[in-house]
Amino acid sequence: MLLNTILSLTVYLGHQEGVDMTVLTVILKYFQDYQNERDYDSNGNLIRIKIYATNYVRIILTGFCPNNRSNEQGKIDSNCPAINFNGLSNKQRTKLNVKFSKGVIVFTENDIMDSGTIYTESCATKLRRHLYKINLCDIGSCDDLIRWIVKYNINSFTVGGSRRSFSENIVSLTEKFMNCFIPKIHNSLKYNHEFIKQKPISTFYVLGPPGSFSHELAQEICETLNIGIETIKFQSNYNKILESSCNLDNNECILVPIKHDNDFLYDYPHSIPNLY
């Protein structure tokens, strides 16, 4: 069980014009009068907004962006919470946002997707993330999305959808949907926040050996997000511990987040048996 008295629902955004920026705009407008905290990197760039949505839950807005905080319009606005890593391509950005999320929500206009949205969907499939697709032209209610979030314990998600230059109506359609969804998910969090509790060892990342690019990048990312980690080396019985299965080579390791903002996520990380 989490020791935190404050639980988090994290939204990872790619900050492209269209779905990403519309989702961010609607959330910020809805919670504009709520207490929030803003975190900045060493260069003074905004990387994370924490909104205290209820007495028990904060909504965290963040996400990885391409090199130099860029999008199709040029530069990402300085008021957008975006984490920049030099040399990060659009595809690497998308993959990181999916990798750090438990669920992926894809918005479409009549099921038509641009290449970036198709790639987002493929990342969700390859990384075994829960995927929810919404045709914004044929929706009855946002209640189904809330039921999906509750069913799969989606305590973090990223969004995908066509850019404004590809889909003419994607912004207005997304805005309409989010204006329905945000008040309802907020109401759900007020009366039932149990569904966003993290489960021990339900989130982990398979990496190369210490010193490899994937391992070094993961450490840099976790440091930026203020996430404490444990690195677990190959064990023949690791499948008994992890809730998800994967293929792990002898030279690979598993990175498990155990702390966030200096709070332990689990009762005591070293009490998990057979990790070392």
Automatic annotation (TrEMBL):
The protein's name in its UniProt record: Putative molybdenum carrier-domain-containing protein
Pfam families: cpYpsA
Gene3D superfamilies xref list: 3.40.50.450
